[in-house]
């Protein structure tokens, strides 16, 4: 990946501190490839040299499904999509894909919570953008101690 197509940061996410906006972090490697989720080395064995915020790239839905029998604390129904990021013309590595919940079109911030799925309408080929959610599921609904896990993450909201 060239300097013209992506801006990278230090490999350590901890360097951002608590005041930084959350990013959808992928790893960039010395051979120019990008992977999500991030790994220590690339599929080709190259060392990790930085991170890329996938929110800066256009993504399109590859496929989607709706689950109507969800685990405790997960919204029902729960629409999930596999999205593929367009990393730009200068990128010649493997495709970069992510799996995540689909956010409601109408929610500006999509902090509606886990029990309000909203208008989740998505189709193959739709353009989507990652939106941060404090709680992807209800922390108190599971069998694990809420403090033992992170509950935040990204959903993919269709873009008109």
Strand arrangement, largest sheet?
A: 6-5-4-7-8
Largest sheet: 5 strands, antiparallel
Amino- and carboxy-terminal Cα gap: 29 Å
List SSEs in N-to-C order. Answer: EEEEEEEE
Low-confidence stretches: 1-17, 108-116
Question: What would you call the shape?
Answer: globular
Topology, number of strands: 8
What's the overall average pLDDT, rounded? 81
Query: Helix/strand-derived class?
Result: mainly beta
Characterization of the model:
The chain is globular, with a radius of gyration of 16 Å. By secondary structure, it is mainly β. The chain has strands at residues 25-29, 34-35, 48-53, 59-67, 78-85, 96-101, 127-133, 153-158. Strand 1 (25-29) and strand 2 form a beta hairpin. A 5-stranded antiparallel beta sheet has the order 6-5-4-7-8, with no helix packed on it. Strands 2-1-3 form a 3-stranded antiparallel beta sheet, with no helix packed on it.
List keywords for this structure.
single chain; 160 residues; mainly beta; 5-stranded antiparallel beta sheet; 3-stranded antiparallel beta sheet
